Amino acid sequence: MEDLALFTDLYELTMAASYFDQRMFEPASFSLFIRNYPPSRSYFVSAGLDEALYFLEDLRFSPDDLDYLGESGLFKRDFLSYLKKLRFTGEVYAIPEGRLFFVNEPIVEVTAPLIEAQIVETFLINTVGLQTMIATKASRCVHAAGSRKLVDFSMRRTQGTDAGMKVARASYIGGFVGTSNVLAGKAFGLPIFGTMAHSYVTSFESEIEAFRAFTRSFPDNVILLIDTYDTLSGAEKAVEVAKEMAQQGVDLKGVRLDSGDMARLSKEVRRILQKGGLGKTMIFASGGFDEFKIKKVLDEGGDIDSFGVGTKMGVSADAPYVDMAYKLVKYNGHPVLKLSPEKQTLAGEKQVFRFTTSKGKLRRDIIALRDERLEDGEPLLKKVMREGKIVKQSSSLSRIQKIFQDEFSRLEDRLKSIERRRCEYPVVLSPKLKSLQSRTIRKYKREELGES
To answer: pTM score > 0.90 for this model?
Structure first.
């Protein structure tokens, strides 16, 4: 991984410098969690952990980094000398990628000397927050599409190259079959997909000549974009080209719709294809799709086999951020918390236990203390780093996707709804965590607010 130690907010470093001055090096535990559901959401899909762990394992300040910080005039020489030797030496518990989690549940807990644990906050929120947001959005698109396959078409509309790569990865975790992003295909081993653009069609003397040229170049993987001039006319030409291909012993794989009334056009294109003997030819649709448009088109009877989902998924258009926070929960052996209105935190190192019904459906979660053991509950937070080193190699993306698909199949349908959220999955605190919370709140009210 490239050198990213300075990928942090300035206040992380100014706090670290003050901690250094006060010789505050004791162990600190921080929880990473999401405070609230965005509109119409009832769950989250864990994603981004893999990159976060590699960042922690490789954390170091380069000579150029230290020169830059020195030139800022903000930091003392002895603190910069300390940063020169700084490495992440702590431990991390986390919910594995692909698992579902819910509001206020810690997705990651970091324990390390205070400065180490503090300065990684920005990267963890940025990386885990973005990929979790996208994997969750992608899963909603997949749910809306039913058995139909979805491909990530978002790269040209994501906010920068880094986001384009992360969206391709996270959407695959959320159930997409692949991406148009060739670099992501190489980097992550994702299946890559693509057809042609309207500029390809308009560069030829005629639409049908464009179709014929493409079939000569890629005879075994032809999906023709048929809406450049008129969708139904394009479909008729696709049938003609398909018949020419059949004489060469190859089949037309599909046609692509990218504009217009998708429900109506897809049904009419299907009739044209069937009339031409192409009953098995795929209809692929793209153009402004997300879970809401997919549902609308299918509810209107759209006859579509697969979707290219781009802009609205790649930026999570209806919910473009998650309210993720990284808060200190324990320092130097003592539980700590915030009392801020609507932002109160849960003290102490924690574990999340998941309980299921006799049929395997997700029933409820209990947030407990790290050292608790709850009978019949599955502990979700796994130790993934020890003494600054990753404990085990990460799973393949196909394995992570299968983990998601298995767990999502066990979530009640009412919690998968893409409409306005009707209910929340039950998450409660264990009696021991409640007791610790009460004691800690009383302590702060007595010591900080002077209450008896």
So the answer is: yes
